[in-house]
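Before relying on records like the one below, remember that each one covers exactly one chain. Contacts with other chains, cofactors or solvent are not represented anywhere in the record.
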Amino acid sequence: MPELVKNPRVMRKAQAELHESLQGKPTVTEDDLINLKYIKLIIKEALRVHPVVPLLLPRECQEPRKIMGYDIPKGTTVFVNVWMISRDPKYWDEAETFKPERFEAGTVEFKGTDFEFTPFGSGRRMCPGMTFAQANMEQLLAMLLYHFDWELPEGLAPSELDMTEEVGITLGRKHDLYLNPFARVPMQAAP
């Protein structure tokens, strides 16, 4: 949501896709998610710029290796810095810019085979909750954008939004995000 508020063009494009796809339906269902391409791109880009876990679980080097000129002895504990790789200009054009369109070609996925983008890890020990997380993120974001318009509190411009992150085991915003919701498509109670 902070990236969408900072980039109103992206939010409008996502909301346009939702309203065109849902055509006045009372709510977003799981079946609707199949047709929502731009929402998926936004989530990929959000995971690239703000990975939930900045350092993957440590691994132990099983045999001596030489990587980029460095000798890694057997038994060395190795951490993969997903946050840094996801912002490396060697792999990402305008790496610090939030651009969901960079994923339109569909050549880079977070399923663990593209090592420049591994928010859920890779290999046998990648996050087992990846598909569950993906479905939940898509559903929640689609509902938030379909049912509401979002604005920053009065007097705060998108360029002034504090994007400072706090690093721990997980990565999160240092300061809470406060937004004003305005109902766009009223939610209907389940029967």
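The helical segments are 2-6, 8-22, 37-49, 82-85, 130-147.
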